Amino acid sequence: MAGVLGVAVIGTGRMGADHVRRLHEVTSGARVAAVADVDAERVKRIADGIEGCSAHTDPAAAMAADGVDAVLIASPGPAHEAALLAAFEHDLPVLCEKPLTPGSASALRVLEAEQRLGHRRVQVGFMRRYDAEYVKLKSLLETGQLGRPLMLHNRHRNVATPPGFTSEMLINDSVVHEMDITRWLLGQEITAVTVLKPTPSGNAPEGLQDPQLVLFETAGGAVVDVEINVNCGFGYQVQAEVVCERGTARIGDGHSLVTNMAGRWGGTIAQDFTERFEDAYDRQMQAWVDATRRGEITGPSAWDGYATAAVCEAGVRAQQEGGRVEVELAKRPPFYA
Ligand SMILES: NC(=O)c1ccc[n+]([C@@H]2O[C@H](COP(=O)([O-])OP(=O)(O)OC[C@H]3O[C@@H](n4cnc5c(N)ncnc54)[C@H](O)[C@@H]3O)[C@@H](O)[C@H]2O)c1
């Protein structure tokens, strides 16, 4: 193990500030060495709270700062390509929040640049792969006890959308997590997407097509559905049920605490993703720090980021044009085998 890992955090908004807190207070073996944000006041305020942390408005300057060994990118998706390429110039390991980049063409440019380095540098922040329930589900599938997966049912519900949330963002920002988890759980690429649109909920803001039912077909012949329902009003819920030849397995029912009182039984529902996936974010960070200190790159790769970008493009086309849209995926380079 190398010494304490000095991390430069790029983007200190909702996710970035939470990752700074996590690195500073929760993760072992790492420290926040530099932070960068185009908002000079915000970045200074965050750096002031951490001893030995420098503040920058230019991400490249943060990466070049003293004591930086690795980079965490939590700026908005359109800024990721430039930040990734800057990290590659310094040959720094990167944990990049999803999306790798917002489109498949830019994602391919990142894959090409990483391959030119000659070694993997990128882990993409698909943190559900670190959620204890998803990990159990994948382990069970891998034992083969249930037989071949035939179908996967997913539900993804949010209390409400922030202002400016568009129908495309349901695919690009929300269903993107089911795209990654489907590929990971089933070990298969997604080959086609269909989107069905019921009459919008009365809870949905004017013009937002919410909810939607998104269907994936996979290379191994499985069919996957995703209820994406982001103004359900009652809570943040992520559930998944795999239907296999010899049985089914389901996660996300949130039965960790059940109460009986006054003629009713039940529990509580998380209100947002930071609550539901808090442990997964913590485990993702610790795993990234540990692997980086060992000189390894593990977790979701730039290929996973590219493949989900390609599925998102098919999803948005299916949403806008109707019908079934095939995913256009480049050949997977042996570098990402
Ligand atoms: N894994 C997850 O569950 C999850 C959840 C939410 C968001 N995200 C991802 O995290 C990233 C950040 O999302 P957020 O919700 O924190 O957004 P946000 O808008 O709250 O924060 C973004 C921050 O980046 C700063 N910024 C903008 N352009 C920049 C640039 N070029 N360089 C440096 N900083 C810049 C902004 O000033 C802001 O402080 C996005 O990629 C988003 O998709 C992931």
UniProtKB/TrEMBL annotation:
Keywords: NAD, Oxidoreductase. GO terms for molecular function: inositol 2-dehydrogenase (NAD+) activity; nucleotide binding. One of its GO terms (biological process) is inositol catabolic process. Residues 138-327 form the Gfo/Idh/MocA-like oxidoreductase C-terminal domain. It is an enzyme of class 1 (oxidoreductase). Residues 6-126 form the Gfo/Idh/MocA-like oxidoreductase N-terminal domain. It catalyses: myo-inositol + NAD(+) = scyllo-inosose + NADH + H(+). Its EC number is 1.1.1.18. Pfam families: GFO_IDH_MocA, GFO_IDH_MocA_C. InterPro entries: Gfo-Idh-MocA_inositol_DH, Gfo/Idh/MocA-like_OxRdtase_C, Gfo/Idh/MocA-like_OxRdtase_N, MI/DCI_dehydrogenase, NAD(P)-bd_dom_sf. Transmembrane segments: none annotated. The keyword Oxidoreductase applies. Involved in the oxidation of myo-inositol (MI) to 2-keto-myo-inositol (2KMI or 2-inosose). Homotetramer. HAMAP family: IolG. Belongs to the Gfo/Idh/MocA family. This is Inositol 2-dehydrogenase. It comes from Streptomyces dioscori. The lineage of its organism: Bacteria, Bacillati, Actinomycetota, Actinomycetes, Kitasatosporales.
